[in-house]
Write a structure and sequence with these properties.
178 residues; 60% helix; two-stranded antiparallel sheet; alpha+beta; 9 helices
Length: 178
């Protein structure tokens, strides 16, 4: 099962995540960057998707550790997540008071700024970056081929600037950090 503490800690430190899709892409790219969260991904219509991330988010929400805020748009609902200020922060602090918790906290804190920077990226750019990184790492493509596959799958012209921006993000996060 996915590491629930890591997900809750990242959401808490980033002051929330504005969409499920963003959470999926951020966790995928962080894992590629070396932040093991035990989430298994496959390619989906919106790019890399993990039922582990979805289920862990649901469990954290149902248990009151995360707050879920729906927003209604013409195309459907979008859900934002924040740490519950009472129960969520309290349980994080309690876990971090243990030896295992301190070790996990130190491991995850190395990736907080990366997570925050991904949360600041436009969602479409992030979706393209995660898709490109998936092709590069999961299908063992060269970058040019991963970019072309992303272009075809997402119906984006190869020369569009958003694809160039996505490639920069994908390259940055597809490299494992020590």
């Amino acid at each position: 099962m996915m590491k629930a503490y890591a997900l809750a800690k990242l959401i808490a430190e980033s002051e929330g995540v504005d969409a499920r899709k963003r959470l999926q892409k951020c966790v995928f790219l962080l894992q590629k960057h070396g932040c093991n969260m035990d989430a298994i991904y496959f390619m989906h219509y919106y790019g890399p998707y993990s039922s582990d991330v979805a289920e862990t988010t649901d469990v954290l929400t149902q248990s009151g550790l995360l707050d879920e805020e729906p927003s209604v748009y013409p195309w459907g609902e979008q859900y934002a997540y924040t740490i519950n200020e009472e129960k969520g922060r309290s349980l994080l602090q309690e876990f971090e008071g243990t030896e295992e918790g301190q070790s996990e906290k130190e491991r995850i804190e190395r990736f907080v700024e990366d997570f925050k920077s991904l949360c600041d990226e436009p969602l479409w750019t992030l979706e393209l970056a995660a898709t490109m990184a998936f092709y590069k790492t999961e299908e063992d493509c060269e970058w040019d081929e991963a970019k072309e596959k992303t272009s075809q799958f997402k119906r984006v012209e190869l020369r569009e600037s958003v694809l160039e921006e996505a490639e920069c993000i994908a390259k940055r996060f597809a490299e494992r950090r020590n």
